[in-house]
Write a structure and sequence with these properties.
Na+/H+ antiporter like fold; 16 helices
Length: 431
């Protein structure tokens, strides 16, 4: 029996399940990621000669596999948000990005240094890698496919989708700070000036500006070009991949953050013709590719776990990871949303469902290929534990919690009501 034949059969079985499970599990307290993770663990335990998918042994492959998974998910997330971009309507998102994310990074870094005994560079990398919520594994708590109705999403699904779309790029400066400390020293004079100028100001600006420009140009090509060149008429879903890789590749070439560019480009494409049915075509294709990539990544994660990924884990490091999932993110997220649109119950759900996943593995793999981090095995084990716990806990609770919110009528589905909720926030901002 050749291992490659087993791999083909495994991916084929997984792809079949990817088509079946969303319908079977739709109303049940079990998620598709849990099923794929369990399948990966089971198959890699069988004596069929499959190679160990150890991310430490294959850092470059891990980086690029997770990279592709994240950017495809970011394109899908950007396309499916119906709510137009504005300071007031996106108030929850800005709070989660500007308050919750930096505080979570700081809390995990301090706990990693104090409890787990990580050196400062490794502790900061742990905080940065675990900062972004995941656009890949969070489908159960995100908005659905694009519609023609502005503000059609409830506050919970909108906030979690938009947060995941943006914080995957905005966590990158903190990863670069960890790389700078590992490469030089902890002394701020050795790295802060260049880091702030290049890794914060320049790369964020290029990511946002490049994404806007590419999205605007693609929007013109899709919806405003002469009829024979107007791509929206042909309903080719694979153009979602063209937009994804163009935005990511071009912005990375000029030194910006490609993750930011992909999400921003998707929003710009959506804004070019907000209610066109072509958005659903693009989104559906991106979602199918994302589902296939998620399948592969979760199968490999399951294999890595049974292959010993969590072996180097210590009790203090495990405590740090569990504290993030059950204490740090819920508390900081809830505090950051005080005064934001939505009801208190919605704020708690948003805070509790900060799902960690593929993006965390990408950042860790990327950083460890750019600098030598002590305790790298412990970092991988801790991140692996957090993602495992997040997949299981959030996967089991997402469906019943969202159903409960829906049944109790605590979703803010009326735009006028949402505007009324947000008005005090806007007024406070002008005060």
């Amino acid at each position: 029996m050749e291992p490659v034949d087993v791999a083909f059969a495994l991916v084929g079985l997984g792809a079949l399940l990817a088509g079946i499970l969303p319908r079977v599990l739709e109303r049940r307290p079990l998620s598709m990621p849990i099923a794929f993770l369990a399948l990966g663990m089971l198959v890699f335990l069988l004596p069929v000669g499959l190679p160990s998918p150890d991310p430490l042994a294959h850092p470059e492959l891990t980086t690029h596999l997770t990279e592709i998974g994240v950017i495809v998910a970011l394109m899908g997330a950007g396309l499916k948000i119906d709510r137009p971009l504005s300071w007031r309507r996106w108030s929850s998102t800005w709070r989660l990005l500007a308050i919750a994310m930096p505080l979570c990074i700081a809390a995990v870094a301090v706990l990693g240094w104090w409890w787990a005994g990580l050196v400062p560079a490794a502790a900061l990398l742990l905080g940065a890698a675990l900062a972004p919520t995941d656009p890949v594994l969070a489908a159960d708590v995100q908005v659905g496919e694009p519609t023609d109705v502005e503000d059609s999403e409830d506050e919970v699904r909108f906030a979690l989708t938009s947060e995941a779309g943006l914080n995957d790029g905005l966590a990158f400066p903190f990863v670069y700070a960890a790389i700078a400390i590992a490469s030089t020293s902890l002394a701020p004079g050795d790295w802060v000036a260049e880091w702030f100028t290049v890794d914060v100001l320049w790369k964020v600006s290029i990511g946002v500006g490049g994404g806007l420009l590419i999205g605007w140009l693609l929007g013109k090509l899709f919806f405003r070009a002469p009829s024979e060149l107007r791509l929206a008429r042909h309903a080719e879903g694979f153009l979602a991949l063209a937009a994804t890789f163009l935005a990511y590749g071009l912005v990375e070439v000029v030194g910006g953050y490609g993750f930011l560019a992909v999400f921003v480009a998707a929003r710009a494409i959506r804004a070019a013709e907000r209610t066109h049915e072509f958005h659903s075509v693009l989104h559906d294709f991106a979602e199918q590719v994302e589902r296939l990539l998620t399948l592969v990544l979760l199968l490999l994660l399951g294999g890595a776990i049974v292959g010993g990924l969590l072996g180097p884990l210590t009790w203090p490091a495990a405590a740090v990871g569990l504290a993030l999932v059950f204490l740090v993110r819920p508390l900081i997220g809830w505090l950051s949303l005080r005064g934001a649109p939505g009801r208190p119950a919605e704020h708690w759900v948003i805070s509790l469902f900060g799902i960690r996943g593929v993006g965390s593995f990408y950042y860790l793999a990327y950083a460890t290929t750019k600098a030598d981090f002590p305790q790298a095995e412990l970092l991988w084990a801790t991140v692996g534990l957090v993602v495992l716990v997040s997949v299981v806990v959030h996967g089991i609770t997402a469906t019943p919690v969202m159903q409960l919110l829906d049944r109790e009528g605590e979703r803010t589905s009326d735009p006028a009501e949402r505007d009324a909720d947000a008005r005090p926030v806007a007024a406070a901002g002008h005060a």
